[in-house]
Amino acid sequence: MKRLVDISISLIALIILSPVFLIVAYKVRKNLGSPIFFFQERPGKDGKLFKIIKFRSMKDAVDKEGNLLPDDQRITPFGHKLRCSTLDEMPQLINVIKGDMCIVGPRPQLCEFMEHYTPHQMRRHEVKPGMTGLAQVSGRNNLSWEEKFNLDVEYVDTQSIFLDFKIMFKTLLVMLKREGINAPDQVVGASRFSRSESTDTKSSSIR
Fold it and tell me: Is 106 exposed, middle or buried (0-12, 13-18, 19+ CB in 10 A)?
């Protein structure tokens, strides 16, 4: 039933939003050039990797050695607005149709974050990742990293079609009100783990 609902909603959304999809694609091409889409490996169900699809929001600017500059130096005002609007996530409807993701589920994080997960937090990979989830409609970036992951596991334990529709409805309200959208999950996570590693380093040096 969940798979049928996911495919149906994704196809209907792609058809209805196709004008918006094309306009955003044009804007990305005009402001950032090619390619229009951004592909990145993320862990899915059972930790299996898949390539998530997004509209590109950053330039491919590099330093003198050819290394990509930090994200905050590559993102443009246009890219920032695109992320805040969450329109950059629209191509993930294709991921849903392919079966990599669901409409509702824990948001897929960066692969390098997995080594920091506790066994409890790893349970978020017992289901497919989603375009939106319980954490995204319960405060999003106003929540601590631990609170988000607890909500992800809570979803795993209580998932149902009724809960999915409830989360979808709340997602629309959150998007309209733009609540809790102050930084992408990946930025929050990177900052969280950076601070943690920095503290561990300092503690080791003291010992």
Answer: buried
**CA 127, 124, 194 angle in degrees (round to 5)?**
140
Question: Helix, strand, or coil here: 172?
Answer: helix
**Region of residue 26 (phi > 0: left; psi between -120 and 50: alpha; otherwise: beta):** alpha
> To which residue do tokens 């993102």 refer?
75
Contact 106, 145 (CB under 8 A): no
How many residues belong to the chain?
207
E runs forming strands in the chain? 37-43, 49-55, 102-104, 130-132
**Inter-residue contact 124 to 114 (CB < 8 Å):** no
Q: What is the separation of C-alpha 39 from the centre of its chain, rounded to a whole number of angstroms?
A: 12
Task: Tell me if 151 sits within 8 A of 135, measured CB to CB.
Answer: yes
Is the pLDDT assigned to residue 195 strictly greater than 60? no
Is pLDDT at 40 greater than 90 in this prediction?
Answer: yes
Q: Which structure tokens are listed for 23?
A: 């306009």
Cβ partners under 8 Å of residue 164, min gap 6: 2, 5, 103, 104
At 99, give phi and psi (nearest 5°).
100, 5
Tokens of 8: 């149906």
Q: Which helix (H) or strand (E) holds 43?
A: strand 37-43
Helix (H, G, I), strand (E, B) or coil at 158: helix
How high is the pLDDT of residue 207?
30
Would you state the pLDDT for residue 65? 72
The residue with tokens 């246009």 is 78
